[in-house]
Design goal:
It contains four helices and no strands. With 136 residues, it is mainly α.
């Protein structure tokens, strides 16, 4: 249960930071999706993944949490170091600085991905262990 709580907390921290930052980033692109809206969509995904892990703690829940946390972590690091141009409805989000909220979200996302990966492996072992016991 501790692993489920820690994974969910990491996702909730990520969501809270993105919700807090979203209004300041929306004005940057009036066309397309807009960075602020992407932040809100990422926040919703993080909250839903965190709740899923808390409520189920299954391999599927940890897999969803891993994908959400890792994708957010990769995005923040990539857009910090690589000037990716706008493509389709997505704005250019290059921001070559670290600041407190951005750092907090990156740490939470990275930790969430690691915790979710551990949870995924442990949930698989628990399932396999229970299956082996029920066969006897």
């Amino acid at each position: 249960m501790t692993l489920r709580i820690l994974t969910a907390v990491a996702l909730f921290i990520d969501a809270a930071v993105h919700i807090h930052l979203a209004p300041g980033y929306q004005a940057g692109n009036s066309a397309g999706i807009g960075q602020g809206n992407l932040f809100l969509l990422e926040s919703a995904a993080a909250v839903l993944a965190g709740l899923y892990v808390l409520l189920r703690g299954s391999r599927a829940a940890f897999a969803v949490a891993f994908v959400v946390a890792l994708s957010a972590f990769v995005a923040v690091v990539a857009y910090r170091y690589v000037n990716i141009p706008a493509f389709g409805p997505f704005p250019a989000m290059y921001e070559p600085i670290w600041f407190f909220e951005k750092s907090v979200s990156a740490v939470a996302e990275g930790a969430g991905a690691v915790l979710a990966a551990i949870g995924f492996v442990r949930a698989g072992r628990r399932t396999n262990g229970q299956g082996a016991q029920s066969k006897h």
